[in-house]
Amino acid sequence: MAMTGTTKAEESTLPESATITIHDQQPDPCGEVEVTPYGGRVHFQNGDDKEYRLRFWKTERDATDGIDILLPAGARVTVVINKDDVFSYSVGDIDGSKVASGKGGGPIKN
Description:
Layout: H1 5-12, E1 17-23, E2 26-28, E3 33-34, E4 40-46, E5 52-58, E6 67-71, E7 76-81, E8 86-93, E9 103-109
Parallel strand pairs: 1-4, 3-9
Antiparallel strand pairs: 1-2, 4-7, 5-6, 5-8, 8-9
């Protein structure tokens, strides 16, 4: 697929990766995070001594249609972003009791 000069310039100004740090179950930054398409990475770094459930869902869908990923205490997980991906996310308790009301952010996107 051919890209215009404008499209190439827009994509080249995006970072290849970004880190969202979790402290007290709160993501920072909590707003939109955008990385390059086709392999851009969004790292979720857990700064707490508690594991969390990260729930990701397409922004046009309901959060209950999402997928959950374990974020171990003090660890990091990475999400790879493709062209035109847009996901919201929440940070919840591992037992799932507070996923729907968990602290969230996003979207993460390309």
